[in-house]
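Before a colleague's protein record goes any further, I have to sign it off. Would you go through it and say whether the fold makes sense for this chain? Take the sequence as given and treat only the tokens as open to question. The record follows directly below this note.
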Amino acid sequence: MSDVQTEADPQISEPTPAKDTSRVRDFWALLKPRVMSLVVFSGFAGMWVAPGFSDMHPFMIAVAVACLAIGAGAAGAVNMWYERDIDTVMKRTAGRPLPRGRMNPDEAVSFALVLSALSVMTMGVAVNWTAAGLLAFANLFYSIIYTMWLKRRTPQNIVIGGAAGAFPPMIGWAAVTGTVTIESIVLFALIFFWTPPHFWALSLFANEDYKRANIPMMTVVAGERKTKIQMLVYTLILLPLSLLPTLMGFAGYGYGIAALILSGFFVFTSIRVLMDDSLKSARLMFGYSVFYLFALFLALMIDAV
């Protein structure tokens, strides 16, 4: 069918504004905006605390943040494209554009690949190639290692795959300094060890979804009790780890006190989950885990002022 509209073909009509708006919403949903917001915030925090941030041109800061956002969105879009089959059978994801048939899969993956290439190339040319290389690796890790390989094969999918989501502050740090240092590795580790208890809390109350989709989440394979114990272990590891920025001297005591309180309460929520047979504590822990990461990095930024 020709793309050119003629008066002789009444079946072809201009898209209505409502349809155009719906299309924009579908493409926006494809980028996983809630996940993107956390990526952008933690990446910007990595920039903020990096030495030399105050000397960086505001335009370069904006470009680096935009590249982080676009790269994260592109990786999320690849994830939605590849997982459209399991998204169809999971209640919490069945309303996404691809499972609902509102978007062509080829269109979705093309959109994702273009955005991914654009974000990496722009980061490299405008900012530096260290940050661009980390961004490219993070996108490939999430899209291929986690989405296409780990997620459907091992209950350690979140543990190993969580590395992809831990890169943003390291990328932000590299965008300012052009290097990867021990400080940026600590910021990486904070998110890496936060990821398993965060996602396992979700999987506790979304367990039936994962069973229907045949995804070997820890809750499905090992059971709720063992998952809850591992969640507690990770929060206990995270508590002293969160204090490292103060102990290493690139954050002050204000951050250290905030980290101790926030991480201590994270441990408490994990203990509550372990002791509670209902799903209420798991939901509360999941909600707190999101707040925890935002608050931890916000404390780091405030301390650096």
